[in-house]
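YM 10:42: WD repeat-containing protein 26 sequence, as discussed on the call
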Amino acid sequence: MSQFLSFLPLLLPLASAQYSNSSTLSFGSPSGYTSSTFNASAQPTAPIPRTDFSDQALRALWDLVGPVATGPVTTTVAPTPEPSASAYPQPVGTQFHPYVPSYYPELSDAKLPEGFKWGLASSAYQIEGAAKDEGKGPSIWDLLAHRVPNIVSDNTTGDVVGSHYFLYKQDFARLNSLGIKRFSPSFSWPRFFPFGRGPVNEAGVAHYDSVISSLHENGIQPSVTLFHWDTPLALFEEYGAWTSRSIVDDFFNYAKFVITRYDEYVEEWFTINEPQYCNWQYSFYPAGEGYYPAFNNIQTGVQSRFLCGHYTLLAHAKVSKWYHEEFKGKGRITFKNSGNYYEANSTKAEDAIAVQRNFDFAIGWFGGPWTDGDYPQSLKDTLGDLLPEFTSEEKALIKGSCDFYAIDGYSSFLAFEVDGGLEACVSNRSAPGFPDCAGSASTASNGFPLGPAADPAMNWLYSTPSGLRRFLKHLTTTLFPSITDIVVTEFGFAEPFESQLSNMNQILWDLRRADYFQSYLDNILASIVVDKVNVTGAWGWAIFDNFEWASGTSVRFGLQYVNYTSLERTPKANASADPAIPNPQISSSPESSAPSITQEPALNVTGQASDVRATPPAPPTRGKRRHSLSEDDDVSEGTQTDAPRGRTSRHTSKRRRRQDGTMRLDSDASNPRSQSPPQSYTNGSARSPGPRSSLGKVANGDSHVKTESNGSYTNGSSVTNGRPVPTTFLGHDREEVTRILIQSLTDLGYHGAAGQLSKESGHQLEGPTVASFRSAVLKGDWAEAEELLFGTNYYDHGGGVHLDGQGSFGKSWGKSARTGPNVRHTGGLTLAEGANREYMLFLMRQQKYLELLEGGKTGKALMVLRQELTPLQQDTGRLHLLSSFMMCRDPDDLRNSSEWDGAQGESRSELLSELSKSISPSVMIPEHRLAILLDQVKQGWISNCAYHNTAASPSLYIDHICEREDFPLEPKIDLRNHKNEVWYLKYSNDGTKLASTSKDRTVVIYETTNYKPLHILEEHDAGVTHVAWSPDDTKVITCCAQQECSARIWDVKTGRCLICISDFTYPCTTAAWAPDGLTVVIGSQDTKYGLAVWDTYGNIVHKWTEDTLRVNDLAISPDGRRLVVLLEDRIIVYDFRTYEKIYDSVITGVKLTSVTISQDSQHMLVSMNENKIDLMEIDTSEVIRSYSGQLQTQYIIRSSFGGANENFVVSGSEDSRIYIWRTNGQLVEALDAHPDGCVNAVAWHPTNPREFASAGDDQRVRIWRPASSTAPTSTSNGFSR
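YM 10:58: structure's back
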């Protein structure tokens, strides 16, 4: 106490108080200090830059994870010799239990295409182990598995797992012995860069050097994934990883290092594995919960989900652009999508919307590379400010950044409207289903599962093989039609409760997994050979049992069993193989209940089968349900079912089918038959009274209806002269060939021959149901047409207003009022896969509406619009247009406004033709099928003919080829009328004249019969940069460079200058005539008149003033609809009829120099520095193809279309050559043309494809013709040999 009292004098100045219950204390502030407030829970708002990359810093990161386990193997193990595949214990399918069969006997002779890539896949964190070894940094999953309670259901980690990091050499030797020649691993980002950036880990590099070498030593081709969710933990600590833009540069730095080092040995790069993980994994990471900071307070949930996805897309796109444009990589690059297939749970429109939303919020979210580089509109509308926005430059970067489409397609679902309705969900960000706002389930509407279930821990995974096939077609024809080829980069199955088994005899017979792989591979093959989807590879998951993220090791996907104690691998039944069989058959013989039938083995994941052959199976019991290539699950003819008549038990996809898609060939005998009695037709057709239309216009047919022919059908096979005929014809289905011939004979007008063929073969072109449907459409009986097309049960949506005013339209969505003894109850026609029923209804009801308007029945038409068209929820813009037709003055005004030729014109026939595209081809053969097939043959010839330069159609008698000697490859005429560099030249539209421009200030106009000068236009005061011919070739406009800065219009007949437009202060660069020849568009570098329309008297008609337009080149489409303008780095497209801008596209990193437009007005050819020519769609700016080889770095080099039917692209070059490509991108020739300078422009003769002209710095114009040509050739529309 005495010591305290001694300090009391020192404390008194700091505080004085009156010690009573009512006293107030006051405290002083010592000098020399600063104060602040602190919040230990606050999250950082800015990155915490890392500068320490030392061993101590790495140890500190691992301290966040905690102790790490080590396995029984801690060094790389040298491989021991592996036995051959046949030496592994494997099922004996001929003894007591058969192999898993194929359910598609139709595929028994089908093979995978040459070059199809198949193999196995896995990822670094899931199989490598060695978590802390050899300098590796921790990943986010090291932290999650070790520190976050219950995030892994069995509390296991990836510390050891299969220890592939040390056993990879043995694993690859085993793959080799099993006949598996491809492997798709992922590389570990934190093994290369322990801190995510900074110095590279030498031990990690040495390891993956050895991995790549070992793969190639074993004859295994790698396809490498750069990132499979193992983000370096250091980046979460530094700036929050994938919620920060900084991740884009750090991932690019990592990817650039790996690709640069290994690209020589890797065919394919996957930048990102399943960026959709940002939803179901990343958005649940515990940011700000004590494990790592939540920068800018971005924690779990929707915001982190879409930031993660945003920067993932940008990271991928940046790597892709560098890979192709700077690094010039030799392989292909893309990212792997996670997506499942969806169909509507019912016929409700709301369920169809749910299907699309499920697609949009999964694969559509990352669909920018295949569309416009942006997000789907549904995401923008729903998320608002929660969805980051891309700049125009970023959209351009993303668009086209994938070389092929990669899909991890495991399962399928039925989609349904979310509880409470879509509007309630999207308007409430707290709603449980927000933002997807679409339900889905793995059970059918009756509660039965869609397929066999996987392990309960994988409650989303059901074996739904036909869903994969539909998904592949839907992806490539509906969702992303720009996809060139598609690879199934993961598919696999978790055998139920396998991890709980200890008896190897139970483990090795993994029947559900074997069935999964067999069925999925069957459907991949069917997708290729039947649906014509360009599937180029398939990767099974997984190489062996692994760490399955939140399920740990409690779930097993492996084709090899892993003993996690001894680390021994054992191939399961589904991994047995005979590697001696190349390019294997996919399918086996069909399953039969007869015990004596020996089954052919299933195709296992290696794509190879045992050489045990099956004896022919017994004929299937009549009425027994089986699978078919048509995917129609209805029972066969004559079998009773509990399903309502007229509606299949399987849901039909509601998405609209692409009009140009490949239709399914429903050749299965179990397809639904006509409900009407079979009849024979003498001319292969049936007609009801009413307007007639040729079968060539509307080609019809029912699905394999057996008609009697001379009373002879033997066991379901047709007979000829009493003798059965084979079911095939030179390898083709005889019935398909016969029906197509019947249709073709009818098209040709040989109706008697068609009838005789139908009678003799026993096959008919169309059955009575199809004929009745066609007749109903052509008569305008829309209620009857809907009933015949969709069946009685589908008529619930039909009915409504009749053309004759009869019928009920009080409830357009209720049951039809058509009742009574005369009502027909049919099952409807079989629709093509993916057919959109609502769209088909819309087409018919639109026709009905227009016919009512045409007949003056405006009130009834209005009812159809409101009660029948609007509820279909198809095209809102189209509905608004249809409603505007109510204001038409008379029928003629209606037909003109709607571009529709009326009920008595061809509109009903055209409608029937359009509807036939959505009806199964086996029921209604696509029109002119033989002609289409012959066109495809000819197109194949033409595509493979490098010098194809004729407008004449090739003869069918012999295989087509064009000889090189008939191609214009030699300069036959040299024109030396210029005294300086020749900058540009252009043929007149009729090809009778050629104009060339020069730096010498002149324009020379030649007659092309002998190439003698007609006029030399010499009034220019500067070099002439451009010339354009008027549509009638009576005038030309010329543009001058600096000094004069003017444009002149000349009379071609007299050579006289008609007008000089000299309002410019900067050079005129380009000009184009309007199709009417009354106005011209002039582009210049002028800030005032950069882009304007002028009449031929020099008056401005229109000037674009929205910003400064310094124009390098421009072109007007031949149809007069589009004006394309090139600035330095922008392409602007206008509607030339209204002068309104359609889009403004920024092209970064290049200088745009010239543009020309194809004769069909669909495409533009854009030249740019450096060394690049792009063929693009005008209305979308989508790059269709790029051409390379030519040199263009400093000067304006003009490219153009040329040859017959514009089959070629031609360009000059700074290396004095002319480069000629086929429009498909094949370089045909590089011709030495104008020595000592540039070839500035090339122009192909518009009417003689065997002639073109070139202009060069050597002051010459050269005329090129075939080597055999000695005199000027006659003009014609194409040249035929």
